[in-house]
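#onboarding

Welcome to the new folks! Below is a worked example of what a typical request in this channel looks like: someone posts a single protein sequence, and someone else replies with the predicted structure as tokens. Don't worry about understanding the tokens yet, we'll cover that in week two.

Example request:
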Amino acid sequence: MRTPALPPTRGSVSRLLQLGYTTWRLFKQNGLQNHAAATAFYFLLSATPLLLLLSYAVQVLGRIAENSVPATILMAALYNQLQLEHLTALGFIPRQTQLAAGGVGLLTLLLSSRGLVNTMQGTFSIIFPDQTRRNPIVSWVLPLIILPVLFLLMGLAALAQVTLSFLAQNDFIGTANALVLQALNTLFSFAMVWALLFFAYWRLPRRHPRARQAAVFALGAAVSLALLLALFSAFFSLENYRNLYGALGGVVFVLIGGYFAFQLLYLWAQALYAYGKADITALEKLFLAGGGPGTSKLEGYVFADASRLLEKYGQVHAPGYTIIEEGDDSRTAYFLCRGRARVFKNVDGGRRPLSEVNEGQLFGEMAYLLKEKRTASVVADSEITVLALPPETLEELMRHSAALSRHIIDTLCQRVERMNLAKPA
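Example response:
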């Protein structure tokens, strides 16, 4: 037995193509655009009380700035960098906010936080399907605290960024020093966003993916969000929206930005799931490629290269090699890629041939499905190449694909019927 040598470059390109296709198909199938819209709506609800609280904080800061030079600089930086005058003109921030309004904003923030986190948890349960239930206490408490803490961290990073920008523009600490500090703060902000995405990708799924995989896909999501932010900064300015649409334009701007941002977040999460199921999906398409249900020409092209599967599961056997021995307790299933094999039944005086196994057929699954010993022997009639699938892989395949499960059951029924007809009277 040997594993065939395969070209790694071709396999890598094929895997990326299969990953991209599977991710997009699942993204559309799960309706993640609609989930992104719902999440963006809750995000907008959360942003509104945050601006209310920001207004209250600015008023408190204004009273402190009357007797404090650092507070004065900080307040000037906030107004300059966050364009608070524009937000006030658009109606996002009221001109007078009392303590009671801040309390209402905090309560609204907590409630919208719960709606936002619950929506994200529900979406992740669709992306990463699993039957286990979450701890009810965690499900109720976590949403009430996670978003305020998240916005607090992001607010501190944004506050440091705008302060450094203001100091650099007014040459308080020197342009070169300010640029270095700004770059470090930007890097810190990016790292914080990546860490939050990593935590979401790693811990939100009930069956947690590997930490290394979650880290890589979180990095891709963070880079995509940074590019999206740069794109919005380049093509959509708050000033233009104010002139064209007024306050409504600002709301639409925030909603559109949140919608695309959450689409990217869910797209990368779906890619993480597809990556973890890459072998299962490829095996499913390979088994159904012979005209089985659920296949298409596009899928046939995308999943045509089976080199990665052969590298991982492939075995080559010489003519006459007994792959399965009748009466054995093994549970491994096989898929015949190349060559031909024969099925024999032990009878008095030798072996009686039952049937042939041709290319593209799955065999040996009966022992696993029925939890019985092998009912027949399978011997290579020529040099053959097979995929050897352990029981856990076959089980995951059947859970993953209803079409494949029906195909296997149908094949199994036909095989049992042929064996019954072949029995001597």
